[in-house]
């Protein structure tokens, strides 16, 4: 929960949570564009100093990704919860579950993903985040198949899962009437071709 003080130097409430900083930042991104918004702009609007902002986020590029790193351990747990399923089903189901959000969070998630996927300045940074996500899948597939996470099958599975998920997100963003888990379900149906030969 955000802790708010009324003693901001410019008469604004002081924001002291990741969620509140992200709300402020996304409002500015919407108004001025990502490239047109600086860290100083975000800090000023949040009623905090630049140094305080950098304690929450290492760079402006990290803000749209939120606390993504914190979700990866949860993704590992989701994958392990499907250990009793065939490998292709486990990965398929876990990816969908990882991308399942409560209805009240969908508008914010849509705005976040729209920014991440359509902002040129974020693409190089996003590659690093995608690699972290793929690594979770590769490690799980390696564990299930007795191989190494850098071997061909785990790497192929992780790249295919990401590519299919991104295709699903593209379709979801293009049609506000679409349901995200349903779109991902359709996109991921082809994953079994890469994994059904494994145990």
List keywords for this structure.
elongated; 199 residues; 64% helix; Tetracycline Repressor, domain 2; mainly alpha
Describe the structure in your own words.
The structure is a single chain. The chain is mostly helical and 199 residues long. The chain folds into two domains: 18-62, Homeodomain-like (Arc Repressor Mutant, subunit A), CATH 1.10.10; 68-195, Tetracycline Repressor, domain 2 (Orthogonal Bundle), CATH 1.10.357.10. The chain is 64% helix and 0% strand. It contains ten helices and no strands. Helix 4 (68-80) runs antiparallel to helix 5 (87-98). It starts with 17 loop residues before the first helix and ends with a helix.
Summarize the structure.
The protein is mainly α and 199 residues long. The chain is built from 10 helices and no strands.
Mean pLDDT: 89
CATH architecture of the largest domain: Orthogonal Bundle
C-alpha-based Rg, rounded: 19 Å
Outline: elongated
Overall CATH class of the largest domain: Mainly Alpha
Q: Kindly name the structural category.
A: mainly alpha
Report the end-to-end length measured between terminal Cα atoms.
44 Å
CATH homologous superfamily placement of the largest domain: Tetracycline Repressor, domain 2
Largest sheet features: none
Low-confidence stretches: 1-12
What is the number of helical segments per DSSP (H or I, 4+ residues)?
10
Q: How many domains make up the coordinates?
A: 2
- Share in helix: 55-70%
Q: What name does the CATH topology of the largest domain carry? A: Tetracycline Repressor, domain 2
Query: What is the β-strand count?
Result: 0
| Helix/strand order | HHHHHHHHHH
> What amount of the residues lies in strands?
under 5%
DNA-binding region: 38-57
Keywords: DNA-binding, Transcription, Transcription regulation
GO molecular function, one term: DNA-binding transcription factor activity
Protein name: Mycofactocin system transcriptional regulator
